[in-house]
Amino acid sequence: MKRLALILVCLMAAMAVHAQTTKQEVIDNPVVTRGHYSTYPVPAETLTPAPEGYVPVYMSHYGRHGSRYHTSRSNHTNAYKILKDAKEADLLTSFGKTVYKRVRTMRTDAKGKDGGLTDVGVQEHRGIAERMYNNFPELFVGNAVIECRSTEAPRCILSMAANNERLKELNPGLNITRTAYEGDESYLRREKYQHDNKKDMGTARKQLLEELDATAFIKRIFESGIADILDEKEQKKFMREMFALYQIAGCTASCGVEFDDLFNPEELFILWRANNAGNYAKCGNSKKHGKGVLNDAKPLLKDIVERTDDALAGNGISADLRFGHDIAIAPLAALINVNQIGAKVDPIDDAFTVWADYKVMPMGVNIQFVFYRNAANDVLVKVLYCEKEATLPALKPVSGPYYQWKDVRTYLLSLVK
Q1: Domains of the chain by start residue, with CATH
Q2: How far apart are the C-alpha atoms of 81 and 77, rounded to whole Å?
Q3: Looking at residues 107-122, what average pLDDT do you find?
Q4: Tens digit of pLDDT for each residue in 288-309?
């Protein structure tokens, strides 16, 4: 009975991570509307011990880069120009003047740093590395060999560096190799389908944004004469640009700017719901685009299986650590259907109820396959998503969150055909 209770507790905890999302949940906790710009959710759960006799022998990992600056300064530049022009025309409310100062500060801080890793992002990956080391010390003992690969994006390379630096601080004897080759991009960041269908993937977002009413938002920031400078379409665009700055503020905390007082909960929900639908179309298993999106994840999954086979056969590698992007890990999670992330709906049909970007792909999101072996050479695997024990709905665990690797391997290979 105790064992059954433990299994149920583990399953319920893991499933709760990606349980259905409600509008009320978002309204009550508006910080989640930062969506895929949400900072990394540091886990608080204690991991389930392995069955008796099993010890960790290998880890296969893929992680998104840590918190970053916006990849384009257009949000800062356009919003700042509008606010500056309004200030010079004496069309800012007293609240609007504080917004202008904050946007100016954020714009100055972000200058020349487009897409770059922030201090927050560095600390996120240092923390992940430290918990990795503490959770699975058997993998990082002595001169263990750790092989790391990154896409060519500087934010990913620096995330890898932050991870490796912390591991080396904890054990200077580790043998860590690092690469960031163009040749690895084909599976670390394969986005052919996403690239070819980018315009169509934005349809759901545009449709949902049609219900956006910027009237109250504009009145909080500008005096009535702003209509002479910005028409209704431009006002909505400004509102969306300010939402983008609100979303990224947690990632750029070192500049001391927040916009938590900028929107009301209903406005945040409408803006986030639209963005989430677009992210789901781009990175999830949607009815229209899911097949193509998930196909792009197959080379990465194939790499995970092949390198696991080599490691378990005795190639001497303790961990394969990959560093990339949300556009790779979210489709991978959907392909495997870890924690039911592979749910299939139409983006316009309230996709947020089954797929929420702040749960699926926050900054630093990572998936860890941890392999355990006993004296009889039997191999189990546990999957962690954002370092929390996850479920594979297609398979039955043998104990708590632990699955037979031979069963998981067969399942994963069936997905890459």
Answers
A1: 2-415 (3.40.50.1240)
A2: 6
A3: 96
A4: 999 999 999 999 999 999 999 9
